[in-house]
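Appendix B. Extra example for self-study. Work through it before the problem class; the solution is given directly after the inputs so you can check yourself.
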Amino acid sequence: MNCIKCYQEIPDGSKFCPYCGAAQVAVPETGTADTQAEPAAQPNTVQPEENVRPDTVQPETSMQYQDTQSYNAGYQGTSGYGSGYQNDAQQNNYQNGYQNNYQNGYQNNYQNGNYQAPYQQGQGELVNGTPYLVMSIVLTVISTICCCSLAIPFGIVAIVYSAKINSAVTAGDMEAAKKAAKMAKIWLIVAAAAAVVSMIISVAVGSLIYEGTYYYYY
Amino acid sequence: MGSRLRESRKARIGVAVCAAAAVCAAALYLYFSTPQGVPLVCVFNSVTGLYCPGCGTGRACYSILHGRFLDAFCYNPLMTALLPLIGLYIAARALDWIITGRNHIDKKINVKFLTGVLVVVLIYGVLRNIPVFPFTLLAPEGFWQIL
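Solution. Structure tokens for the complete assembly:
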């Protein structure tokens, strides 16, 4: 699919564009649970523990998600599903352990598809405000074609980290995205410095050693 | 320094003028150097003996500065083909940065297209080292075989 604002190619099912941050219209395949979850994803919603969570859930599973807002969003979205499932489970006399595992798995999946909460946390400082990916590729192409080899490895490292930013943002993991953005910035600067250094080396070597000879391989 | 550049357009114009002066100085140096006189040496080529994707760029730019575009194409075909794009990109980025102090250009560039360009450049760097006829055309001065 493409972003409705900047028309960049973005992964199917994205709720926010990783390039410009614009909210995407809910896509059909993510279902109605997502759209219902959106108002519930506000920071100050009622804690869902008492009314939704089955008694059978063990303490450590609740600890796992309580520190993130995405937990609230994800959990509220699944409330209908969770209670429905609980009924099923009780009817079928499933083991408690099985129920816990199943709910955890569902929440994890849901979080991966839900980009609402991370963006609320990161508002005002969108990690991908700087298009590192484009910058690093352009730098690598230009240094490949002009400044020779010294900057290429660093440029490719920068490309890898910039690609990591995008995948982390679309997965909703803002911490990883910020880390990757930091590394991308560092390697971009290193690559640019290496390009300048290799320019200087080629001029210096050329004028010092090969003066008067017929070497002009640049 | 960084915040001043972000706020003051005059500071940005000053930086841009300095950069343009440096580019002009480099162009003048290249114009008056002769390929046989004060050469630029590719580090990669002098260490490994192979052609990198940029080999021939110096001579190509020299030829372009002297108005000989066919020679430039012979020295480094891909770079000569990409040069208008690179020039357009740098000019757009510079103008955007001078006027707004921000970067609006990169977000509008298709990442797939750019990745394609990078892959083509790297493949080109491999192909021009193959010493068999159709590929030797890509090496510096290669097109002189048929032109």
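Self-check: Residues 9-32 of chain B form the longest helix (24 residues). If your reasoning did not lead you there, revisit section 3.
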